[in-house]
Specification:
With 363 residues, the protein is α+β, with helices and mostly antiparallel strands. Helices cover 37% and strands 23% of the residues. Helix 10 packs across helix 11 and helix 12 runs antiparallel to helix 13. The longest helix is centred in the middle third of the chain and has 19 residues. It is globular and about 70 Å long.
């Protein structure tokens, strides 16, 4: 390994929510476990928040409608999320990981980047440190993790995804581009379905093919994102590992396919929106002091309302109750509703040292 290269670990806890639940109830180990909405015998509404690897073998994945999940695997154990439990477990995991890093960047409730450049230099000590982290997580917290090691964040992230669960991938530091070349473009963080289809239409399905496209062309296609994509494909991306700033606010909105005429229906939707917003707060270890709503009627007439609370909180029930109270002001309106949203602001981090935001790839 060259002494000029940073040494970056990407550590990803395997099936984190399901692993936490299995730690609380060991009888769930080795079984298909689904965390999300109540399936109600296949009639439930809502989505899969997370699932165990055993459930994934049946084709289940996060974001899937819970009714579809139930059809694929009715024998699974279905649990409602316990975000307070997951946040506590995450805090302990991140404290453990932070002790091994020169620089530390949490990027979700269950994953983080560690810059360990001053602690290890050669391949064997690097592997030994990774194995030590894996052992500490297994012995101390009961979790397995997958670790990718590379000279930059994107390659380390790609590496950690390659051998799950309980994987360890050391990207060759003197041949990062060659290592990436054999992989499909879908492994690049941030390259979703639309981008894959766009590239496939142009004959680009592997990173090797993407490497042959000039940076200038990628900028034409993707704007500033093209610069980032070129760096990732070439193995030359150089984003530093760093703590993230606290966002000013978080919001979730839902635009209805068909305007909703029944005002009573909006309260159920409001609860679902609050649920997703609370999930994002827990991932970011954030607390709020202000709750607001946004409502848009059929003819695009839009209103917002906000309420400042007495103290900081991260409780789902408080978001729901406050949002419902604000929504009641509009209950006398006869128009159908086109859009509904909830927003929390006046944010602060629950723990001063914790630092998370959304996907690092969007920074």
């Amino acid at each position: 390994m060259s002494q000029h290269h940073p040494i970056i670990f990407h550590v990803d806890i395997d099936a984190f929510y399901a692993s936490v639940e299995a730690r609380e109830a060991p009888e769930l180990r080795g079984l298909p476990v689904v965390i999300g909405a109540d399936p109600e015998g296949g009639r439930g509404r809502g989505v899969v928040v997370a699932c165990s690897y055993e459930a994934r073998k049946f084709g289940l994945k996060s974001g899937m409608p819970i009714s579809r999940a139930y059809k694929l695997c009715p024998s699974a154990t279905y649990l409602r999320p316990n975000f307070t439990l997951y946040a506590r477990a995450s805090s302990r995991v991140m404290q453990l990981l932070r002790r091994h890093a020169d620089k530390f960047e949490q990027v979700g409730i269950d994953e983080a980047f560690l810059d360990v450049s001053s602690r290890v230099r050669d391949a064997e000590p690097v592997k030994e440190l990774a194995m030590q982290i894996k052992k500490e997580l297994r012995d101390g917290e009961g979790f397995t993790c997958s670790i990718g090691i590379a000279p930059n964040k994107s390659s380390a992230k790609i590496g950690s995804d390659l051998q799950k669960p309980d994987g360890l991938t050391l990207v060759p530091f003197d041949a990062v581009g060659e290592f990436l070349a054999r992989l499909p473009v879908s492994v690049i963080p941030g390259v979703g379905k639309k981008t894959r289809e766009f590239l496939k239409e142009r004959g680009i399905e592997t990173i090797a093919q993407l490497q042959d496209v000039s940076g200038k062309q990628l900028v034409k296609w993707f704007g500033k994102g093209g610069v980032w994509l070129w760096g990732v494909a070439q193995g030359k991306e150089q984003m530093p590992v760093r703590a993230r700033e606290i966002p000013k606010s978080l919001n979730v909105e839902r635009t209805f396919r068909r305007d909703v005429p029944e005002f009573k229906q909006l309260f159920g939707v409001m609860d679902e929106i609050a649920y997703e917003l609370n999930r994002r707060l827990r991932v970011g270890e954030l607390r709020f002091k202000k709750v607001g709503i946004k409502i848009r009627f059929t003819h695009f007439e839009t209103h917002t309302r906000e309420k400042m609370l007495g103290d900081y909180s991260d409780e789902l029930d408080l978001i729901q109750r406050t949002a419902r109270s604000l929504l009641h002001e509009f209950s006398g309106r006869k128009e159908s509703v086109r859009l509904l949203g909830v927003r929390v602001s006046e944010l602060r981090r629950e723990r001063a040292k914790a630092s998370t935001l959304d996907s690092w790839a969007r920074s």
